[in-house]
Amino acid sequence: MEEYSKRKTKDSHILNRHMIDERPAVVDARTRFGDWELDTVVPKKSDPCIMVTAVERISRFLIASLVERRDSMSIGRRITRMMNAAHTVPLTLTSDNGTEFAMHRRVSAQLGCDFYFARPYHPWERGTNENTNGLIRQYMPSGTEFKMDRKKLHHAVERINNRPRKCLGFQTAQEVFDKGNKASRPCSSGAIGAGGMPGSRLAATNSEENNVVHLNF
Predict the structure, then answer these.
(1) Which residue in 105, 48, 33 sits closest to 76, CA to CA?
(2) If both were cysteines, with which of 10, 149, 177, 206 could 59 make a disulfide (CB 3.0 to 4.6 Å apart)?
(3) pTM of the full predicted structure?
(4) Per-residue pLDDT averaged across 173-186, rounded?
């Protein structure tokens, strides 16, 4: 399998990585829309599924999905579908060094964005995502099974994305995301409605998109 090492450690066993030191400084400044942080959340050992989370840095908007398999191919495909389901175009993605992100080059090519890795054992370099995962744990605590419970995850993500945030001037992540996504994806045809989302926010084009949770998907 491409870019995958059988040894699973936090060290450099993912090939062809671009480290966070190579990432444009504008990402740290949070002055533009479209820079995302990625992570996975693992449930109780008896539960084979895994949660993939993505947080947009400027809006703190959360997308999350439960995946039945933990292999890098499944995770890579789901990241692409998560972004497509949210009708957003990422500029950069930044993850930790878990081998579940070994398909980073394929994800980068499919989404047309740059993929970077934080330094091993430096979770603060993805602090926005780490903090958001902590919010998810308020609804889905550590040591519990996820059991592919998309309804529970939907509830958690909806609450998180719609709570006013002091860091956002007491706007919600949903509100800031909608504004940023609309500005970054102008559409004259009317196919994309307010906030860059489809006219029907409940609409999904296929069963895979139904697995992705951001607000009303």
Answers:
(1) 105
(2) 177
(3) 0.82
(4) 91
